[in-house]
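BUG-151 | component: ligand-complex export | severity: low

The export step for zinc ion jobs runs without errors, but we want the raw record kept on the ticket for reference. Input record follows.
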Amino acid sequence: MRMNAASHRIPMIIPCPSCSAKNRIPAARIDARAHCGECKARLSPPDRPLSISSTADFEELIRDSPLPVAVDFWAAWCAPCRVVAPQIEALATARAGTVVVAKVDTETLPDVAGRQAIRSIPTIVLFRNGVEAKRVSGAMSAAQLAEGLAL
Ligand code: ZN
């Protein structure tokens, strides 16, 4: 069954690869040890960026994820953000199951961006065990992102 890309835009909702039921996954199980609530099939880890839609979702993901989380802070008006977006997606696909890639729109979640002291965008911050480990800013390739974030 072909995955519906749009469903990945809903944060932490993982479609079942077997029956395509949408499972809301606690961040603590985002490494896909979770099973589908409908058919019990094992879920696949997210291979596309998760769009964070609330401060609570951001905090849960950073705090509870068993995997490192790379967060792209971006905005629609930011041209370099549009350049880096496909690279962020490539990173999410290449590192599925080892890194969770998420996106925070700094226009819709300015409090999150403020608390993380985001001064320019795009800025990509890597969190490990709830703590910032690395950050990089500016447009770059997926390979440069991985290198800059020490992934
Ligand atoms: Zn299922």
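Assignee comment: Attached the raw record above. Helices lie at 55-64, 79-94, 110-115, 142-148.
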